[in-house]
């Protein structure tokens, strides 16, 4: 058990949520959004926590996935089994094209290049007059799944998001533990050592970037279906900043931190905004305090509690 | 003399007006230890960077195992069997000692674009990594995080990582740097054991260690090789003695 109880508890709570009297629509909508952001944050964690690549353009991956839904909707293709792979592939291709340049750099340069590509994607989306330009695009409806209108069912959509999120976390863990992941993690800690034993880090980083892009594209596809609306604001750099914040809030020590960070971020944002319209004045300081005092992020909380208990 | 494993010809490197490597030529025969010594500022570090592939020379060639590698970067030379250790310990601190060595084994055994199977469960990688740790006397610390090892143990791990690559030549950059007297003794014992099985190019500051270990010595002074010979002849060489005047006595 040990450190694993926190993610298990969170996934159990998410699975139980529809039966805990919370099924009355609104909260499930929020939870779905939180899980989708969790999926996007998990993909970003692979880059930041796994490969040591701090991207400030990850919302663009999500946006490419969302706009794939738009383009297919516009072409009357609304089958999720087609849309989802296309959204993932489109985001992965975008990731490879931009990553081929970005992964040659590191640190601040990587941040700036990903930010620049993210902004290019943002302005491109805003100029797509056929898809509503600045105003965004309202979908004809949610995608069908195997020809049925399952995604319109809150419960089905809830468990779909939950299942994909769990699959992403487990898949991400396996990826990081594999040979590939070992090279990636080693190159994060000490690229020179990795070169000295015979690896060139760049191709490994590029593949990681493409995988993260594909998963973020899937998150974008889900987000488009959740809101039935897509706008350039999906790709705004502030969204990339939010994702990065979720990852850091959750903790860079373990992959499920991204899920914790995203849930906390979305739920806190939602809760505070209902309480007062000046919620940002509370939200900001809370996040600052969390980063200052939670070493290891939210994922590190069980460890911190254990240490406090031992100290008495 | 057998075909040299490493052959340097006419190597030159300038930084601004300063010739740090000035027409350096020497050959390393396979088997045993060939040492490069020189006073501070002789250009030893710059030379090792050019040999390992982290610095491009302005002129000259580096041939390794019969192949011109002058244009190849560090990782390509590593794949050909040139294993370097670093003067300033360079391990992966978050990995266990075993995983540090296993990464090096992984580099020479099949593709690392494998995404599913846990690498830590690959018995063949672990066995080879453990054998490398064992050769340097670090098997008992296999599970310890590299970042938590003592300085001397990190120096041993550096060697183990290089051995795990199954190299054709070990390029050791001051493996004794920063080691205390006891650690130095242990490392010298390890190196004496290794010289029977590996070809080693040793760049080292510790004169006593060099004369205890080396089969041949090249002396680098102001970027030039002023002598390459057996230890006894180097010790007697007046030019070498002059170069070291005011430095440590040539033992």
Question: What does this molecule look like?
Answer:
- Chain A: This is Branched-chain amino acid ABC transporter permease.
- Chain A: It is found in: Cell membrane.
- Chain A: The chain crosses the membrane at residues 47-70, 82-103, 109-134, 155-176, 206-231, 243-267, 279-301.
- The complex is a heterodimer of chains A (312) and B (251).
- Chain A is mostly helical.
- Chain A has helices spanning 5-16, 26-51, 58-74, 80-102, 107-126, 154-177, 179-189, 191-196, 201-227, 237-250, 257-275, 279-293, 301-311, and strands at residues 137-138, 229-230.
- Chain A has a two-stranded antiparallel sheet.
- Chain A is globular.
- Chain A starts with a helix and ends with a helix.
- The relative contact order of chain A is 0.19.
- Chain B is of the alpha/beta class and 251 residues long.
- Helices cover 35% and strands 24% of the residues of chain B.
- Chain B is built from 9 helices and 10 strands.
- Chain B has helices at residues 44-52, 74-80, 97-108, 123-135, 151-164, 181-194, 207-213, 231-236, 238-243; strands spanning 6-15, 18-28, 32-37, 59-64, 67-68, 82-85, 169-173, 199-203, 216-221, 224-229.
- In chain B, α4 packs across α5 (151-164).
- Chain B is globular.
Summarize the structure.
Chain A is mainly α and 312 residues long. Chain A contains 13 helices and two strands.
Name a few traits of the molecule:
heterodimer, A: 312 residues, mainly alpha, two-stranded antiparallel sheet, 2 strands, B: 251 residues, alpha/beta, Rossmann fold, 2 domains, 9 helices, nucleotide-binding (chain B), ABC transporter ATP-binding protein (chain B), AAA+_ATPase (chain B)
